[in-house]
Design a protein that fits this description.
heterotrimer, A mainly alpha, B mainly alpha, C alpha/beta, B: mainly alpha, C: Rossmann fold, five-stranded parallel beta sheet, 7 helices, ATP binding (chain C), transport (chain C), cytochrome c-type biogenesis (chain C), ABC_transptr_haem_export_CcmA (chain C), cell membrane (chain C)
Chain lengths: 219, 246, 206
């Protein structure tokens, strides 16, 4: 059941590859714009890199949130999901996971390449990738709540950013902080454990919250 | 029809009760503001380190307190509304949000005004100021979500969800920002080392906080009454109310 | 024996009261046709019956228990087909059917899905993406779910729209067979349809 949902969303994403690529290219373009805005001074870029990559990842992940439920809402599949004898929280978890596989994982894979643009050391690249790997699922899970609450509203896309971006702040702080800490020789262990804790907490709480929100929005 | 009457009775009775309470809280707020400001401007001594500029704390600190308290209270009423399906609690939550946002903004604004003479800049990325800014974002998110939803029942419930998610996240956000702040020591100036306060300063500040509370309660009651009227405009009792006042 | 009961149901949309004090009781083998002009709240009533919407007053009971408290077990006994088809443009007919059945808690293999689609007159079109199908054919894909999901209660909102006469006949037979085997149907339709059932009732919404 849970697997059916993931499989279906991945299948749909494969049939609409352009959407996936759009998010990825958005991420790449945003990251590449920063040096053009602040100048090509390598020392500055190196210190900016984690923050820039992370903020771009937040934006890219958020921009694709609209798609998580809206097409299912438009064609009636969401009604059927609400009427499923299976638990809705599990379904939402499946959808959030599929969202992460489709938008989060490409960002994680692309991050080291972009890090090279910013002249990050190999260690820093590793930590950056690892922090994104732990942090991006949290973005999809928290984002599911925002997407569920703004379902079918006018201006939903902008609204979802108002709701979700403040909640992303801890992930941003510790995600980017991990790279800085390791660069400063402090080790990224504490940051990584906290990111892991966020991931576990949102795995438990977010699907349920998003499921309740979906029921509210569909009434 | 008995059920109908019962359901509408609580906003109706609250409406008249609030009407009686508003003058009391308004007068209390006005008196306390006058007393508090008098102490703040004329009685409290000039601070030997900060000069006269410190006097802005008489509004800054109460505003910051209220901004946080009101968010928690808003989330509490939202939660009650969601759990027990009591419409009045959701209405109160909706009424609190603009006042809370106003105090948050006031705290940020006075913080900036205070910062300029103290640290020479309008804004520092201090943990408290940053958290306050994020709190403002949370208030704005709550209000824009409710404003975007036409159906009041869905607006109540969706707002309640985001308020509860927000209140769970506030400590995490505050903790993260604090951690972030200590990591970037160079850029920050600590607000925590407050000067030793003369007792008159403390009295003034407490009276000002009380005044802000009274003001907040009065405004929230007035706004709740307006929301009740809007939501219940088709009920019998509102119709009678208008006939009586005409 | 199963029963579906509605007691004093009231629906409020915004400021308007669509209907109030609607009562009915439906038993095994029973068919209930909900009638009323556009905007009288037919769809709202059906959405209430399947638990998507909550009535402003009144309650809905399945075997004497409030459906809200039944949750998943009620949904396992019920199939709702609404205005929206739930058919994905980018998936083939067979994928659509298999996934929607899985969502409803019934996992079917390729062969069974094939048979059901064939029965609905979609033989040879199973592997086409749904976007090239006509409205009527998409409707048939949706209705094919009734064949594979063994639920007792069918709640059907305008099941006959966009269907041609052969398909209408097909659905008619399908419903009659379902009622004979102890099923129950609640439906709305603007078309005249003759279905023989143990008990047929009409619910008129003002």
């Amino acid at each position: 059941m849970f697997l059916w949902i993931i499989q279906r969303d991945l299948l749909l994403a494969m049939r609409r590859r352009a959407d996936v690529l759009t998010t990825l290219f958005f991420f790449i373009i945003v990251v590449s714009l920063f040096p053009l805005g602040v100048g090509p001074e390598m020392n500055m870029l190196r210190t900016m890199a984690p923050g820039v990559v992370w903020v771009a990842a937040l934006l890219a992940s958020m921009l694709s949130l609209g798609r998580m439920f809206s097409s299912d809402h438009a064609d009636g599949t969401l009604e059927q999901m609400l009427l499923s004898p299976q638990s809705l929280s599990l379904l939402v978890l499946g959808k959030a996971l599929a969202h992460w596989l489709v938008t989060g994982v490409p960002l994680v894979l692309m991050a080291p390449v972009l890090g090279i643009q910013y002249d990050l050391s190999t260690d820093a690249l590793l930590v950056l990738t690892a922090s994104l790997l732990l942090g991006t699922p949290v973005l999809s899970l928290i984002g599911a709540i925002g997407a569920a609450l703004t379902l079918g509203l006018r201006g939903g896309g902008v609204l979802v950013s108002l709701l979700v971006l403040p909640l992303y702040i801890p992930v941003l702080i510790f995600g980017a902080g991990a790279v800085e800490a390791s660069a400063a020789g402090l080790g990224a262990g504490a940051h990584m454990s906290l990111l892991g804790a966020f991931l576990l907490a949102s795995l438990v709480l977010a699907p349920w919250t998003a499921a309740v929100s979906l029921r509210i929005s569909m009434e | 029809m008995a059920i109908n009457w019962f359901k509408y009775s609580s906003p109706a009775s609250f409406y008249s009760l609030a009407g009686k309470m508003i003058p009391f809280f308004s007068v209390a707020a006005a008196v306390l503001f006058v007393v508090g400001l008098y102490i703040g401007f004329f009685v409290a001594p000039t601070d030997f380190q900060q000069g006269e500029a410190y006097r802005i704390i008489f509004i800054h600190v109460p505003a910051a307190w209220l901004s946080m308290f009101l968010y928690v209270i808003m989330a509490m009423w939202s939660g009650i509304g969601l759990a027990f399906n009591t419409r009045l609690s959701s209405m109160v939550a909706t009424a609190i949000a603009p006042t809370g946002a106003m105090f948050t903004f006031l705290a940020l604004w006075t913080g900036a005004l205070w910062g300029k003479p103290m640290w020479g800049t309008w804004w520092v990325w201090d943990a408290r100021l940053t958290s306050e800014l994020i709190l403002l974002f949370l208030y704005i998110g709550f209000m824009s979500l409710q404003a975007a939803i036409d159906d009041p029942r869905r607006a109540d419930k969706a707002g309640a969800m985001i308020a509860l998610v927000g209140v769970v996240n506030v400590p995490i956000i505050y903790f993260s920002v604090k951690w972030w702040n200590t990591l970037h020591q160079g850029a920050s100036v600590s607000l925590t080392q407050s000067p030793k306060m003369a007792s008159t300063m403390l009295t003034g500040m407490l009276i000002m906080s009380l005044a802000c509370w009274m003001y907040a309660i009065a405004v929230i009651l007035i706004r709740t009454r307006a929301i009740i009227l809007e939501r219940e405009r088709h009920t019998v009792w509102v119709g009678q109310l208008q006939e009586a006042t005409q | 024996m199963s029963t579906l009961q509605g007691n004093k149901l009231t629906c409020v949309r915004g400021d308007r009261k669509l209907f109030s004090d609607v009562n009915f009781s439906l038993e095994t083998g029973g068919l209930m046709q909900v009638q009323g002009r556009n905007g009288s709240g037919k769809t709202s009533l059906l959405r209430m019956l399947c638990g998507l919407a909550t009535p402003a007053h009144g309650d809905i009971r399945w075997d004497g228990v409030e459906i809200r408290s039944l949750g998943g077990s009620y949904h396992g006994a019920m199939t709702y087909l609404g205005h929206l088809s739930g058919v994905k443009d980018d998936l083939t007919a067979i994928e659509n059917l298999r996934i929607s059945s899985a969502l409803a808690g019934v996992e079917i293999d390729e062969r069974k899905a094939h048979e059901a689609l064939q029965h609905m007159g979609l033989g040879g079109r199973e592997l086409l993406p749904a976007k090239v199908l006509s409205q009527g054919q998409r409707r048939r894909v949706t209705l094919a779910r009734l064949l594979v999901c063994q639920t007792v209660l069918w709640i059907l909102d305008e099941p006959l729209t966009a269907l041609d006469t052969t398909a209408v006949k097909l659905i008619q037979d399908l419903m009659e067979r379902h009622l004979e085997h102890g099923g129950m149907i609640v439906m709305t339709t603007h078309q005249e349809i003759e279905i023989t059932a143990v008990a047929t009732q009409r619910l008129q919404l003002a």
